[in-house]
Amino acid sequence: MRSLLGFELYKLFKQKMIYLTFIGLLIITSSYMLNFERPSDAEKELYSKWEGTLTQEKVERSQVENEKLNVLIDKRVEEMEEKGEVGAAFSEEEATKVGMYETIAFIQGADDRTALRLSELEGEESLSTALETSILKENDFSYFAYNKAPREIIDYTSTFSLVVTGLMLMIGLSGMYSREYSSGVENYMLSSKRGRKDLARAKIIAALIYTFIIVVIGEAWNIISKIYLFGNEGWSTTIQYIFKYHFSPFGFSMIEYHLIQLGIHLLAAFSFALLILFISSLCRNVLVSLIVSGAIFGVPYFIVELVQMPTWLREALQFSYLYIMKVDFLFTNFNAINVFGQPILYPFVAILWMLILSVLFAYTTVRVMRTKQVA
Amino acid sequence: MKLTIEKVTKSYGEKVAVNDLSFELTEGVYGFLGSNGSGKTTLMRILASVSKPTSGRVLFDGEDIRTLDEKYRDMLGYSPQHIGYYKNFTVQKFMLYIASLKGIERQQAKQKVDELLELVNLTENNKVKMSKLSGGMKQRVGIAQALLNDPQILIVDEPTAGLDPKERVRFRNLLSKISANRIVLLSTHIVSDIEFIAKEVMILKEGVLIQKESPKKLLEGIRNKVWTATVNEEEVADLQAHFRCGNIAHNDERFDIRLLSETKPHSNAVQTKPNLEDLYLYYFEEDGVA
Amino acid sequence: MKEESVEEEIANYLEHYTVEYPDDDAIDQTIESLRAYVPEPQSNGAAIREKLQGLLRHSAREISVIGSLFWVMNVIFFICGFSYVLFFEGDPYSTMFFLAPIPFLIGLGEVFKGREAGLYEIELACKYSAQHIMMSRLFVIGTYNFVISAVLICALSVTIENILLLKLVGYWILPTTLVSSVGLFLTIRFRSSITVPVTLAIWFTTSMMISQSVDMKNYLESLSAGVYSIALIASLVFLFLQINRIKRGVRIEAND
Asked: What is the number of CB-based contacts under 8 A between chain A and chain B?
């Protein structure tokens, strides 16, 4: 078994094009970072002055300061208009300050909304009320710090890294069986003792290892590039600082959320890898295998984004590989499914669903190979 | 040791490749003779368990090979007609790969691979990439890999296609050397491959087994039907039009011709000892007769 | 008595005599040196016409060899693209940009099918050599790409109001030539079963990044005609270099 696995890994990683593609995809999907500017020392200093728990006093002070600054800027704009001047009405430093004050107000909004929602829930009597209340009660958004790096890291994971992972899996794994068929090696496989069940298992493990490596390297690149640009601060701030998660009921810190996000991304990637392997075991042509996997991966996205449909269908379609690998929709709102009178949160549903599909396709692949015939 | 083929039929849609075959094989070399499309390869694939019969079954010592599953494949060595391979694997690596498919332990595998490459005379090429091998060399790798697990049942489909005469002789000797205590199945359309080493020759035609006899018995069946004659050029054409003709050789201004006929085909024809080439001609070339 | 032993000796000698086959290099060398003596085709005009006719004839034959998957899939892609623009208000230029090189990339698998199936040696030895066959297939998929893109351009310009035809053509030609030549470059060197997915993936990601980024789009829009032409010419030259390479014969075994 170990030597079978060794050979499978060898065949996978011997493909030079895989490395070129991986590097190419990472570079292309990171090209947007060229527009990024590293924070100035002044900006970092400003944030570090405000870093820490946002007390009532601090929030109020930021409101006052912001007010003052806005009045000043408005006045300057008027003056400039009178004189017919054009240009920036505020300095770099002032812009940074306004940005920061607004962020504080922004996170304060999340706090207020949580309180409001909690009071709403008190009057409600639905199945998931208790669950939602218990989640919301945990929330504490009060920690404030400069957090550009974690924000960007989380954003990349739910956008471009899913493209990179998805494509790399398809490219690397679509040929895993198809290529055996087209090269004629299937004859040896199917007529040898370990060439059916055990080889299928070895291929499954090899595919999972490949997936793990792809995700880990992608993650390493993501982390290193962002921390290099923005520093390593802000991991303890909550995800409500990110616009996408502003309305999320889950009060995870950036580091907590990123780990959860990465875990679910990896799980979905594992599951997708097993699906690709299964499709490959049925297709004699690598390109067909690739296109079928690509369609299963990509088509739900286009349907959801483009077609008008009832909400339940949209939600259902989101439980496809791409969206679960994207992770974000599981956490942006409070969503639960009722299972025998027990509300189950979307993230758990997604995890369960991916596990079921993984087991199903792994099992079916082994079954297919047990009875496979040459064409 | 006994391999029983029981009412095996294999059809692809409308086309029946193997039609209700039943026979038994025991230790020794069996030669399959058949023209292209006779069902040879299909039958061998079924016996090699890479293809399943549409109906009927194959039994090894009374047990269905499908229930034996791994146990059966553990006893099997199969060299397909077209040798598949990975281009970027060296010969040695490829052999080790097959060894791992056959579940042979790493250390043992290395030793066995060296041994077999020696046997098929490829030791010097063991670091050469598979894609750089000549057709004959690939064929020899195919044979070597089939022997990796010391198979009880050895199935080789057209092993000598692409081998040069010297290699063919070597292969034949190799086969007779290893055939003791094994069932060896060998398909070919080069008759001389099996003439001296086959215990029985099986003749397949359009998916049906039409003969299964020792070469000697088979030859007896056509004993009085093989003739040679020395004739001129016009007569050659005439004979070819009416009889199944084998070898034609120049003999000064005239030709020596070998042909099959129930009766004396020409005034100076003499009867001669039949060989398997004649047999092949007898069974497969009748369409050629006008 | 003596005669017999001589005979035996000769027989023995012959028995052990092996004919040394020349190795591949020697055969190649011989062919290369003989090539100089192959008569040059006559005058250019007639020769070119003859060549063209030959190419067309071969191409017609190759059409049937190219898998139906190739034809059908590309039609589906283009229909999807067209409906995306028409029914979902997709941007016609980005859509054109994305779709333009796809038929060629997918078709590369078909062009090199013979090499991958181990047929290359047979094809090389046939009257119409592998080079001929590959050239004709390239011609077929190139033409198909052209036709299908042209149909899409016409369909878009008829159905979408205020579409800038020239801009649409611009969004079509450069990606087609550039990506096709890179795809061809890679496929000559590596196995097509890997280069086709890879080039498709890279192209997909690149065009996704471009369509997502306003900056990139603006940059492309603001490209001057001069820069555009230079890029176009460069990619055309690169494309022809690759085609020429095939014409001379692709001798490299897929060394991946």
From this structure: 81
Does residue A104 sit in the same domain as residue A226?
no
Q: Cβ distance A245 to A150 under 8 Å?
A: no
* Set of chain C residues whose Cβ sits within 8 Å of the Cβ of B132: 253
Indicate the number of domains in chain C. 1
Residue C41 pLDDT: 54
Name every chain A residue with its beta carbon within 8 A of the beta carbon of B84.
183-188
Instruction: Provide the residue range defining the domain that includes C168.
Output: 45-248
A139 lies in the same domain as A152: no
Cβ-contact A210, A275 below 8 angstroms: no
Its domain, for residue A169, covers: 2-38+146-370
Q: Domains for chain B: give ranges and CATH numbers.
A: 3-219 (3.40.50.300), 223-273 (no CATH)
Same-domain status, A238 and A269: yes
> In sequence order, what E strands does A99-258 have?
143-144
Residues A218 and A98 in one domain: no
User: Which pLDDT tens digit goes with each residue over A282-325?
Assistant: 998 888 898 899 999 999 998 888 888 898 898 899 999 999 99
CA–chain centroid gap for B247, Å, is 22
Query: What is the three-class DSSP state of A194?
Result: coil
Q: Widest CA span of chain A, in angstroms?
A: 89
The residues, any chain, with a CB within 8 Å of residue A74's CB and separated by 6 or more, are: none
Smallest CA–CA separation between B150 and chain A, in Å? 12
Q: Where are the alpha helices (DSSP H) in B207-252?
A: 215-221, 233-242
Report if residue C121 sits inside a domain: yes
Strands B226-231 and B270-271: antiparallel
Name residues whose C-beta falls within 8 Å of residue A252's C-beta, 6 or more positions apart in sequence. Answer: A238, A239, A260, A331
Q: Are residues A192 and A269 in the same domain?
A: yes
- Quick one: pLDDT at residue B140? 86
State whether residue A199 sits within 8 Å of chain C by CB. no
Cβ contact, residue pair C254, B87, below 8 Å: yes
Does residue B128 surpass a pLDDT of 80?
A: yes
Which of A5, A187, A196 is the best substitution to test chain B (most B C-beta atoms within 10 A)? Answer: A187
Q: Are B181 and B28 in contact (CB under 8 A)?
A: no
Q: Which of A114, A145, A176 is the last residue of a domain?
A: A145
Is the domain of A139 the same as that of A150? no
- The Cα-based distances of C209 to A160, A229, A323, C174, C206 in angstroms read 9, 21, 19, 17, 5
Low-confidence ranges of chain A (pLDDT < 50): none
C206 falls within a domain: yes
A302 vs B: CB within 8 A: no
- Predicted local confidence at residue B197, as pLDDT: 82
Same domain, yes or no: A280 and A293 = yes
**Overall number of domains in chain A:** 2
pLDDT band, residue C43 (cuts 50/70/90): low
Residue A375 lies in a domain: no
Instruction: Read off the tokens for A194.
Output: 């370990």
Binding-face residues of A in 185-204 toward B, CB within 8 A: 185-199
Residue in C80, C111, C179, C194 to test binding to A, most A beta-carbons within 10 Å: C194
CA distance C160 to C96: 13
**DSSP letter string, B69-125:** THHHHHTEEEE-SS----TTSBHHHHHHHHHHHTT--HHHHHHHHHHHHHHTT-GGG
Contacts of A12 in chain C (CB under 8 A): none
Q: Do B106 and A3 touch (CB under 8 A)?
A: yes
Q: What is the ipTM of this complex?
A: 0.81
| Rounded Cα distance, A123 and C86, in Å | 48
* Identity of the residue in A184, A193, A194 whose CB atom sits nearest the CB atom of B82: A184
Q: Is residue C19 part of a domain?
A: no
Whether residue A230 is found in the same domain as residue A259: yes
The reply to whether B82 touches chain A by the CB within 8 Å rule is: yes
A88 interfaces chain C, CB cutoff of 8 Å? no
